[in-house]
Write a structure and sequence with these properties.
By secondary structure, this protein is mostly beta strands. The protein contains two helices and 33 strands. It has helices at residues 142-145, 268-271, and strands at 13-20, 35-42, 49-55, 57-59, 65-72, 80-86, 92-94, 98-101, 113-118, 128-138, 155-160, 169-173, 180-184, 189-196, 206-212, 218-220, 224-227, 239-244, 254-265, 281-286, 293-295, 299-303, 307-314, 322-329, 333-336, 356-363, 372-378, 388-398, 410-416, 423-426, 431-434, 439-440, 449-450. The strands form nine sheets. A five-stranded mixed beta sheet has the order 4-11-10-6-8, with no helix packed on it. It has a five-stranded mixed beta sheet with strand order 13-20-19-15-17. It is rod-shaped and about 185 Å long.
Amino acid sequence: ITNPNDDDLGNDTDTINIAVDTASSAAEFSNVANVTIPVAVTDNDSANIVFATIGSQSSEDGTATAEVQITLTNEPTDDVVLELSVSDSTEGLLSASTITILAANWNNGAENRIYIDGVNDNEVDGAITFDLRVDGVTSTDAAYNDLDVTTIPVVTLENLDDDTGIPAINITFTGTSQVLGETSEDGADAIAQFELSAQPINGESVTISFESSDTTEGELTSTNLVIESANWNNPTLNQLTIEGVDDDIDDGDIGYLLSALDVSSSDAGYDIVTGADIPDASLRNIDNDTRGVVVTKDDFTLTEGQSGEFSVVLESEPTEDVRFELTYDENLVKISPKVTNLATIALSFIPIRPQAQTDGYTFNGSNWNEPKVFTVTALENTEYIGNDIIELVTTRLVTTGDYQGFETPKVTVIIQDNDQEKTIRTGANGAILPAAATLSLLSVGGYIAYRGLRKREDV
């Protein structure tokens, strides 16, 4: 049995009856009853929607429009109304959100067209794909009215970008100066904030890696920053902390940079951005050190035979070794510990101090903050010379580093004589002369001169 009537209607399964009629049979079959044979006819049509893409691309500049033709898989018993939408309305705009497919045009796509225009933006986001889909079907034809829209295929379209360049990533700092970040050796941190020029598509995040140009001045608490799509324009949620690094050197306020190394994202527009595309952010680390030489005792009084101490220490770490030198009269005082193998600086000849000694001590990066103690002893003598004032002068700090040319303090020692005054008489008139040292008669012409004396009186 062949059914020659194949139609396009969705009729499910029908039943027909085939009757065997014996009315015209031979006489011997006249008593045979008529027979009815049921035959089931299974329909080969099902209700669904078919998209035919005529043009799959739209463009932001309006030069391209996507076109999709719609047909049905089988002829409906009545008109079919489709509700349409796109998955990303920031990229595609439908010419109509509903379309009615007449029963007479069920398979004529040219009569059932929908157009999709590209939506323009100012973002360099590249070509963005989106879908055209059916959200609802309405018809008096039960096969279509009850159609599950999740079974309807979607059609993928693409919106071409018309922007050039790359999306921007802006950096500011918290505080009064948003252009320059400040850290300090005292522990103050700088907070960098980040904002994207456009929201990443499809909820994608953007990851940026950073480095400090000078880790001896500023260090990052984290080298990576992840900016979530929802927070793309909220800098308070996109922050990076830079900590100031402390040192002991008087190096002033030092500038350094926060530099981006790489940018990665599943958003193609941001994934093409490189670290070099993001301008460096400037910072400075505020110094808390000051150069200085501290002498714990810069003047004291000693009686012959007594000793006193003073110490010397630097107030900041030197960039190069610093030799602290002092000069004294070794006939009057002794200084210990005596540093050996030290160069002696030649001084101008002073008649009353013919023996000038230079000693010193070298400070470096490991001992600069350890005070060096010197012991000063006033030497004994058997002559009365009265009080003697000695100046211990640090003639210079010998260095090629940051302490070069730095002025140093003086240490003054007042030596009190413990000898009795002696007198001599000379001349017919009995004039009294101080006998602090041996007198040398230089001339017989009525005057004498003497050297080695600490006090001089007319003779």
